[in-house]
Amino acid sequence: MRVGLSGGLDSTVLLHLLASLRPVLGFALAATHVRHGLVAGSEAWADGCRTLCEALDVPFSVCDVEVERRHPGGLEAAARAARRAVLLGLGDDWLVLAHHRDDQAETVLFRAIRGAGVRGAAGMRACVPGDGEAGLWRPLLDVPRADLLAYAEAHSLDWIDDPSNADSRFSRNFLRNDVLPIVEARFPGASKGFARLGRLCGEASGMLDELAAIDLAALTRTGSTHLHRDAALGLSSPRLRNLMRHMLSEAGESMPDEDRLRELERQFRHDEAAAGLRLPFGAVAICVYRDFWWLEPLGGEKAPACVTWNGELAMAWAGGQVSFALTVGKGVSVASIAHQSCTLRRRAGGERLRMRADGLERTLKNLFQEAGVPPWLRDDLPLLWVGEQLAWVAGLGVGAEFRCPPGEAGVVPVWSVLS
What we know:
It is a single chain. It contains 14 helices and 21 strands. It is α+β, with helices and mostly antiparallel strands. The chain has a six-stranded mixed beta sheet, with helices on both faces. It has a five-stranded antiparallel beta sheet with strand order 11-15-18-19-20, with no helix packed on it. α4 (101-113) crosses α7. The longest helix is centred in the middle third of the chain and has 30 residues, at 190-219. The two termini are 31 Å apart. The model has no long low-confidence stretch (mean pLDDT 90).
């Protein structure tokens, strides 16, 4: 496990505690100091951290990071995000952080002021298992800072006082230094109460996630990631918004504010949504078409007008790729395209395709409607042309004139979006 070591009181006590437990429990321990250079003189803090680690016989490292100055959450949030990203990327099983009960109270109050809802007011979790990266462990989350100070003094520990923590121009510092002491003086134990509120909101948030998982399973179309819209419309508004929040969270998106989520629900419930609705949110979009709705990546790359295919097994296309699988008796007949000029093109309008040998040529617009291809996908779907004849269209299939007969060599084009 690795401790994120700032050199302040909290992380100094945490490292000392873990180092004292190491001989008994036999775990591996390391520490890393993240240097972002936002405070004058902070470059020297790493020296104090190194001295502490040498005294405790703990492997130590320093990582330098660049902090995004225009982060939407402000400089504080940007610094936290940069520290966490570099610490989680060091390849450890567990990252151990020194957040304590007063930090939790501050977090709950800060998020409540911003109207973050039950999920936001849940505050920080003591243990977050990793999913492909280090898990997060906050073993001091129920310990008040006063106890950490008493421990440090009892063990004659030295630590660094970050002068920026006294700057109440930063919102969290204002709550920590100016607001919470007044509240605590009037209501003794208030910080403990805020932390308890965070735990209770965490329990409620967990139950909301369980409910969303039940709804997601009940609404999902068999064998698909699409959900039945009629069934979703039958949910109460709070329950539908809870499901939407859950889906966005699972997709890695931050929580929408209440007004935006209500507007999303309003458009989702509108009768015209079935004709085609795509609502961008971060890197994804909530999509509605006919009887179904789903989440999909928000592609930003447009398809090229025309690219030549010279037999490559895969070609980049509009943020995804078209792959070509060689087969027998399926797809486009190899004989029909031999020695021909083959190109991939985006839709220009007016194209027609014959899907059956005994049928008529029909417009792609009509074929897309019958096949249930959402309107926003149609213009960027790849079309395979052999000379000036349309042979294959993603989402529709192979034209009758180019379909591979049984027993002959064929190639199956497949269009996929890379996520």
